[in-house]
Amino acid sequence: MAQTTHAQIEERVLGGTTARRGDIVIVSGEGCWVYDEDGKKYLDLGSAQGVAMLGHCHAGVTEAIQEQAATLTLCPSYLYNDKRAEFAKALVDVLPKHLPHVFLANSGAEAIDGALKFARLFTRRSAFVATTRGFHGRTMGALSVTWEPKYREGFEPLLATAHVQFNDAAALDKAVTDKTAAVVLEVVQGESGVNIGTPDFLKTAQQVCRERGALLIVDEIQTGFGRTGKWFAVEHTGIEPDIMCLAKGLGGGFPMGAFAYTKAIREVLTPGAHGSTFGGSPLACAAGLAAIQAYRDEGLIKRSGILGANMRNQLRGALEGVALVRDIRGLGLMIAVELRTKVAPVLKSLMLSHGVIALPAGPTVLRLLPPLVITEKEIDLGVQAIAKAIKELPA
Ligand SMILES: *Cc1c(COP(=O)(O)O)cnc(C)c1O
Q1: Pocket lined around ligand 1, Cβ cut-off 6 Å
Q2: Does pLDDT of 21 surpass 90?
């Protein structure tokens, strides 16, 4: 039985850091669907951890990767490259205008680590301020600004970081001093429950950073590229971060990270201040260029705002009066169904009995990050399955 074999090999060789949700082995994907070894299909409302924002194997991205793979995959940063230049231009064209420079990396955590380094270099200060329930990745730098104690345990001491209550503007005001290199935060917290930053908190963050010479680093790794109904979540708020971190949707499914920064930061950079062997490879840039074109040309950013609002309304309708549901919230196609019970059994039954893949966000929140190409029919299917899975729970 091939299915058992693949699962067993993975468990034996790669096991240890991940809790698996079942024995199924995924072998292919198309649009919002993934398929297992037995040919059973699953509606992927998690976009493979928020990455497959264009769906799986988007035609434009696939073609760009295939073409570039047969042309040139590698080009070190000390040599110029046509695709890298085209991608850089396309990226800054969609970024906020005050962020005209970008460093190219390979993952979200790497983008955060680079941002923390640039903040230290620019301010010549060492300490950071982040938020409770913030999630920024698992490398030593990114982990330092991440809050969740169970991720940090066993790895301390980390970089000096004060965590202030998310959305507590007064606490933030108190925590930022003339020793602070940067404040790091998400506009909408993803991993910890789709918690939306209040305008007051976000504006205070910008204001106290400016006043005290610290930088504002906004983590848009999960919220970027239309997830919340705007190109970037900062556009809902009017704040202008000094550095913005990107990954997940950036490469249209190809591993890629980046951070964008201001002209003032550009001026302190010197050759060798930062670097990456794989970052900005022509292969990644070809994928990223095709992805940006798809977000733009297929009208996916606006679509996310409209479909997201519809999906929340449908969920509210389908789950009305269900006592186990505490709250339904979100922004664009970034949606949380908060329960009064553990979410793990819901996720398992959703996948195994209803053929729908969703994500957790903390112990009691069901998180939905559907591909932006999802159809209304697929949303309908997903909502009905979620309602069934929750209603089937023992009360
Ligand atoms: C996923 C995520 C990260 C980490 O990205 P990796 O590519 O897994 O390192 C950081 N911040 C946020 C908000 C994320 O959602």
Answers
A1: 107-109, 135-137, 186, 190-191, 219, 221-222, 247-248
A2: no
Position 4 confidence tier, pLDDT thresholds 50, 70, 90 = low
Contact 377, 347 (CB under 8 A): no
Q: Ligand 1 pocket test: which of 131, 133, 136 has the largest number of ligand atoms within 8 Å of its C-beta?
A: 136
Would you call the peptide bond into 345 cis, given omega within 30 degrees of 0 as the criterion?
no
Atom index in ligand 1 nearest the CA of residue 138 equals 9
Mean pLDDT of the 184-207 span: 98
Residue 49 CA: which ligand 1 atom is closest? 1
Dihedral (CA of 150, 153, 154, 156) sign:
positive
Indicate where the chain has its CATH 3.40.640.10 domain(s): 60-297
Q: How far is the CA of 221 from the centre of ligand 1 (A)?
A: 6
Above pLDDT 90, what percent of the chain?
96
**Residue 331 C-alpha to ligand 1 middle, in angstroms?**
18
SS3 state of residue 213: coil
CATH 3.90.1150.10 fits 6-57+299-391, yes or no: yes
Beta bridge partners of 164: 131
CATH 3.30.420.40 fits 60-297, yes or no: no
Q: State pTM to two decimals.
A: 0.97
SS3 (DSSP) at 257 = strand
Q: Which residues of the chain are in CATH 3.90.1150.10 domains?
A: 6-57+299-391
